[in-house]
Amino acid sequence: MDPKATTIFAFNPAVVRPDGEMEVILWVNELGERTDTFGDFLSMVLEMLEVDVAERLAPLKKSA
After folding, report:
1. Cα atoms in the 13 Å half-sphere on the side-chain side of 41
2. Burial of residue 50 (number of CB atoms within 10 Å: 0-12, 13-18, 19+)
3. Using CA atoms, how far apart are residues 53 and 61, in angstroms rounded to an integer?
4. What is the full DSSP assignment across 33-61?
5. How does pLDDT run along the chain (64 residues), one tens digit per residue?
6. Considering its fold, how many domains does the chain have in total?
7. Domain assignment of residue 14, given as a range
8. Among 6, 13, 28, 38, whose CB has the most other CB atoms within 10 angstroms?
9. Burial of 41 (C-beta count, 10 Å sphere; 0-12/13-18/19+)
10. CA-to-CA distance for 15 and 31, rounded, in angstroms?
11. 51-58 long-range contacts, Cβ below 8 Å, gap at least 24?
């Protein structure tokens, strides 16, 4: 993962669920993604952070 990655997100008022929640569009390093809900967006961000932490810890585990 790019340590200088920029994440930008926006709610898409053109896509609204019956419960009123809007689709979320996000960009990470010029790559776009869409999620149905803000909760899905947060889950995606959490997954990206977990991968980043695992990648950073891998060299430490090998040297131990």
Report:
1. 21
2. exposed
3. 12
4. EEESSHHHHHHHHHHHHHHHHHHHHHHHH
5. 456 667 889 999 999 999 999 999 999 878 899 999 999 999 999 998 899 899 889 887 777 6
6. 1
7. 7-63
8. 28
9. buried
10. 20
11. 51/1, 52/1, 55/1
Residue 20: phi and psi, rounded to 5, are 95, -5
d(CA 46, CA 20): 24
Query: Does residue 7 contact residue 28 with C-beta atoms inside 8 Å?
Result: yes
d(CA 54, CA 36): 27
Contacts of 53-57 with C-beta under 8 Å, sequence gap 24+, read 55/1
Residue 50 counted as domain residue = yes
